[in-house]
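Protein data:
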Amino acid sequence: METRLIDIGREKFASEIWGRAPLLTRRAGTFADLFSVEAVDELISRRGLRTPFLRVAKDGTTLPDSSFTSPGGVGATISDQLDDTMLWRNLADGATLVLQALHRTWEPISQFGTALSDELGHPVQVNAYITPPRNQGFSHHYDVHDVFVVQIEGTKRWVIHEPVHPAPLRNQPWTDHRPAVARAATEPACIDTVLEPGDCLYLPRGWIHAAEARGEISIHLTVGIHTWTRHALAEHLTRAALAALGDDPGMRGALPMGIDDPNDEVTAVREHLIAAIANADVTSLFHRARREQARPAPLGPLAQFAAVHDLGPDTTVKLRSALYARLEGSHLVTRVGRVTVADDELPSVTRLLDGGSHPTKTLGTDLVERLLRAGILVPAEQ
């Protein structure tokens, strides 16, 4: 992040900016290795993408899928493949094309997103917005996740206003506050600037914004940070407490017959609930939720087959990237499942979790083969 998106240093960003205020970084760097005009054309016309990997918007309205998709033709029994001719016509007519989830479809961005997510400790998604000259895809709104806006091509004017609903949760979209957002948009902006290629703008969730392309086609990436919140921790605490109360026969019992005033019962239930929350261990729930929020690094089935087939003492292996692997008791828990680990295998697994590449003979052939077959280890050269 510090070398690509900001120029104030990671510690200062964390203490003064993160989740608090926008940050504009001029000429943060070149992003040609991440995305380009050529990447847009390839994704749209040659990759066979389907919805929802692309959506189209014009004048604040999202167009129906039927306006830019068509059947895939012989041998592809699908009806919603991107139609490059229809998309060209929409773009020429002033619509904005939104390539969604590029962290799943474009390898350079996949690697970038994985590294950024590991650094921030929060899930990352990346979309690209392609807007024709002097057009605007979306009116003033706010997002329910933090974003880094990275300008790739062309220029775009960004107008930013302070939140009307600070730090919104994921179930609190801007449409819940549409009148307040509209009023705020008429007030003087706190930021009114034009982004040029290489510029980066950080916006915490809730900050109202609108953007308009200038005199040429604009391409920018929106790097969305789906921040974990204290509210999410409260949800995990509550879930763990309720699970514990479900094991209490007294709490499973019926309320008195003919009950009219529940106050006495509520008092007792509240006491039990507070005690259950105090004793709840949400660590495993939290880590499970984090594992479910993203996918691991790509795995080539044929390369993995060859690795198992050719496995020998000198085969060097490493932990697959972005697995979010951790030891929980006698289990190695990852994004692709859990594996039971014997006591004498724990030192080898610990070394794997520390990172780096290791020869099979230092780990144990049986363990390495099991973890290769589980998709947890990969050849070191991969």
Remarks:
- The mean pLDDT is 94.
